[in-house]
Write a structure and sequence with these properties.
The complex is a heterodimer of chains A (about 350) and B (about 280). By secondary structure, chain A is an alpha/beta fold. Chain A has helices at about 1-20, 25-30, 40-60, 70-80, 95-100, 175-185, 195-205, 215-220, 235-240, 270-280, 285-290, 310-315, 320, 330, 335-345, and strands at about 35-40, 60-65, 90-95, 130-140, 165-170, 205-210, 230, 245-250, 255-265. Chain A folds into 2 domains: about 25-135 and about 260-320, D-Maltodextrin-Binding Protein, domain 2; about 135-255 and about 330-345, Periplasmic binding protein-like II (D-Maltodextrin-Binding Protein, domain 2, 3-Layer(aba) Sandwich). Chain B is globular, with a radius of gyration of 23 Å. The chains are: A alpha/beta (about 350), B mainly alpha (about 280).
């Protein structure tokens, strides 16, 4: 008898709990989750630690990160084409934006719904999605191991650095941009990459690691497996803040850069939240936070003054930023497949 | 028993929906010239087999997996044997120790190996402290490194099936063999090994297929200069966006792995038949 009562009580309680679970619908509408893509390294850390809390405060929604490179995002969006995309916000580097727009993977950015959009410098107000930053590459080196501060990419050829030089595979923008710059320095251009590969062959004896995975690249620096290599300014700053002995140098040939942008994916599950998320990234107060160490993300909002670290290394004024050398990606993109294949053949052990 | 076959239906449905069907999608994709062009063609396969670069990648992947499997066998067999002969209270402890690595994600285990094998890693520190080497030896981004890590990461797949068969062998058989005058090694090779063949074959098949397809370990420890099939497929599909070719090399790779598994299986049943005949 007692057990029966208990069971009945339990059922009532369970039913009560079931009804209760249905009541706070409003509360649950606020606990929506937005799935966003982000890059490995500095980016996922800044987005997790700064942008997600800011966005949560603004909308009540939380963020789930999906960490992947731009090329991986395009492949996944292409695979999901016609249905729901695996994430609502894509983060792309300059070359991938052309492809994503051409393949119909992203929507035009609804500027009207994004109050912070107009605060960006005009060059960064792209109709396919706002540019959130500029990424620049130069030389990263470990000052404990490399005693003379490198001056140019030619220093990577120093026989003393045998086995110490690192590279990344061409699926990352770091790998591709370095190849394009190495090509330019050695006399090539966007339609002729032969000089890059000739120069690369000379560099290979010094190369101790070609990371297949950009995420693992940071670990190689931490483990002092790589002591000198082409690297992103932001990534160096983030590693440095963690106590890793690494310094960034602008080579004599100058910096190379590209814009990075956020995009609303086609058929997004939560398009309004996605736009709010992107808009949060454009806000002056958000960009000021991201510009501080350890992220040092170069701002694109005209109301955000450049930080000391950025002015010292990258650009003294916002006008200088626009002078950083880029490449004609629309010319390089069609060769991407062939370049990756050639690179793999050249470097294979 | 006869009426119980419908119980297998859910599993069969799952298998058809999530393996057979996708495999046919892959096969169909591999027969295209281009993602947009729908005409049937063997162009992708011709491209694969017409290029020694691709064939060398296929061979180095199979050869890598064979070597990793042999290392696993070399270290796994004694462990499984000790487990099977240990007193009951130690046995569960030993088996737990064997299973322990599976409890962490393969990504975490592999990153830990970067710390161990790196130039400033534990391994090189030990070698230098013992004055075996003066300069750090490259271990990361070498095949030796990849094989070492694969063998450690996949070890439980070898030990568990071996342990299962070894512990079922009647210890009296070894005693009988000894009583009839056979030495320890002779008993081991003529009695224990043939009787443990099912576990041996199962272990080898599991380890081989796991090692051949171990994308994470191969790419993190091997880097981009040691290209194996999984990385090759990934680069074609994601980096180069060449899906038909990626699909074709996936199909070739699947078949190659299945051939090795078939050979191992045949070798297993032949040796069993041989054992039974005596």
């Amino acid at each position: 008898m007692g057990s029966n009562v208990n069971r009945r009580k339990f059922l009532v309680a369970a039913a009560g709990a079931g009804v209760g679970a249905m009541v706070p619908l409003r509360a649950r509408a606020q606990s929506k989750t937005l799935v966003v893509a982000t890059f490995p390294g500095t980016w996922n850390e800044a987005h997790r630690n700064l942008l997600a809390p800011y966005f949560k405060k603004r909308t009540g929604a939380s963020v789930t990160q999906s960490i992947q490179l731009a090329t991986e995002q395009l492949a996944k969006l292409e695979a999901a084409k016609g249905g729901r995309p695996p994430f609502d916000v894509a983060i792309l580097d300059e070359p991938q934006v052309f492809d994503a727009a051409k393949q119909g993977l992203i929507d035009e950015y609804p500027e009207a719904k994004s109050p912070n959009f107009k605060d960006l410098f005009p060059a960064y107000q792209d109709k396919w999605g706002p540019k959130i930053s500029l990424q620049v590459i130069g030389i990263g080196y470990n000052p404990n191991k490399i005693k003379t501060r490198p001056k140019s990419y030619d220093d990577l050829l120093n026989p003393a650095y045998k086995g110490r030089v690192g590279l990344t595979a061409l699926n990352s923008q770091l790998g591709m941009a370095f190849l394009a710059e190495y090509n330019r320095i050695h006399g090539g251009n966007e339609t002729n990459f032969d000089p890059a590969f000739t120069a690369l062959r000379k560099l290979l004896p010094n190369v101790g690691a070609v990371a297949a995975n950009l995420g693992a690249y940071a670990t190689l620096w931490q483990q002092e497996q790589v002591d000198i290599a082409p690297y992103n300014f932001n990534f160096v700053q983030t590693l440095k803040a963690k106590g890793v002995p690494v310094e960034f140098v602008v080579p004599e040939t100058g910096l190379v850069g590209w814009t990075t942008s956020l995009h609303l994916t086609k058929n997004a599950v939560e398009p309004d939240l996605a736009v709010q998320y992107i808009d949060s990234h454009l806000a002056a107060d958000m960009q000021s936070e991201m510009e501080k160490p350890p992220y040092d993300i170069i701002p694109t909002n005209s109301k955000v003054p450049l930080s000391a670290a950025i002015m010292q290394t990258v650009a003294k004024t916002p006008a200088d930023l626009s002078k950083i050398r880029g490449f004609e990606w629309t010319k390089i993109n069609p060769q991407r497949t062939a370049l990756i294949e050639r690179f793999n053949r050249e470097i294979k052990l | 028993m006869r009426d119980e076959w419908p119980l297998a239906l859910p599993l069969a449905a799952l298998f058809v929906a999530f393996f057979v069907a996708p495999f046919f999608v892959l096969l169909a994709l591999s027969l295209r010239v281009d993602v947009q062009v729908h005409a049937l063609s063997f162009a992708q396969y011709a491209k694969f087999f017409g290029d020694t670069f691709n064939l060398s990648i296929l061979w180095s992947t199979v050869w890598l997996a064979i070597r990793a499997t042999l290392v696993c066998l070399l270290f796994g067999y004694p462990i499984a044997w000790v487990c099977s002969r240990a007193p009951a209270r130690f046995q569960s402890l030993l088996v737990f120790a064997v299973v322990l690595p599976i409890l962490t994600s393969v990504v975490v285990r592999t990153f830990a190996w970067i710390v161990i094998l790196g130039r400033e890693g534990v391994m090189n520190d030990v070698l230098r402290a013992l004055h075996i080497v003066d300069q750090p030896v490259p271990l990361l981004f070498t095949e030796t490194g990849v094989i070492t890590v694969l063998a450690q990461v996949q070890m439980p797949l070898m030990v568990l099936p071996l342990f299962a068969t070894l512990s079922r062998i009647d210890p009296n058989l070894a005693d009988a063999s000894a009583a009839l005058g056979a030495g320890a090694w002779r008993t081991f090779f003529r009695v224990t090994v043939p009787l443990s063949t099912p576990g041996l074959v199962a272990g080898c098949i599991l380890v081989f297929s796991a090692c051949a397809t171990a994308f994470v370990t191969q790419t993190l420890i091997g880097g981009a200069r040691l290209v194996y099939m999984p990385l090759h497929i990934y680069q074609q599909a994601v980096g180069a966006n060449n899906w038909p070719f990626a699909a074709a090399i996936s199909v070739v790779f699947t078949i190659a792995v299945m051939i090795v598994i078939y050979v191992l299986n045949r070798a297993g049943s032949t040796s069993r038949a041989y054992g039974d005949a005596r």
